[in-house]
Write a structure and sequence with these properties.
Helices cover 36% and strands 14% of the residues. Helix 3 runs antiparallel to helix 10 and helix 7 runs antiparallel to helix 8.
Length: 236
Amino acid sequence: MQNTPHIERQTTPIELSLEARQASLRIFFGGSFDPPHIGHTLLPAQIADQHENAHTIYVPAGRSPFKDTQPTANHHRINMLELATQHTPNTEIWTQELADAPKNPKQPSYWADTWLIAKQMNLPGSNRFLIGADQARSMHRWRRYTEFWKDAMVILRDDADSANTLIKQLAGLNIWKDDDLTHWRSQIVILPTIDVSSTAIRDALTNDSTRDEPITGLDSQVHRYILEHQLYEATE
């Protein structure tokens, strides 16, 4: 007998906007956004444009179970994400994980809980969340992944063989059944490559010679905010 899914962490659900609640498709996009870059804004927008009445919901991560280091302070990440998405229609920031973190100081922010909070809103339409190929390959390591993995949409680069490669890699794990692999394939979305990463941007920001120069993939207003608040400076 399968256990009924339940939320493990202490939580007070945060309501989504009216626009999100009325959307036919809600696209959740979780991440540290430390800092947010153009890939974080362009990729979800491209998927939303392919669906009628879609709404993108950014979910800044609380405390990831897969990362040892703490991200930049929550209020800075929220402010940067607001600047990065201010001109992108039909988007919002859902701070559920950040709000729950102080109530659960010793517990990571498991996506299983976050996703169950969203599902328990019982909203019309569909809820989906975005992941990359690396997250798909490691999905079996996510806590209670069997509760939510089918709701994932996998973003892949525009490499003609990337979908086949990913499915072969998933099959090689000997975890997924044939029907599961068929479902994985149906949820792959091929999008143009955007060669930018938060890690590369942080590296440029910690370098005194490039810190003040325009940085590829970083919104100019986000960059200005970072400089004003002295974020990502090199530590001695």
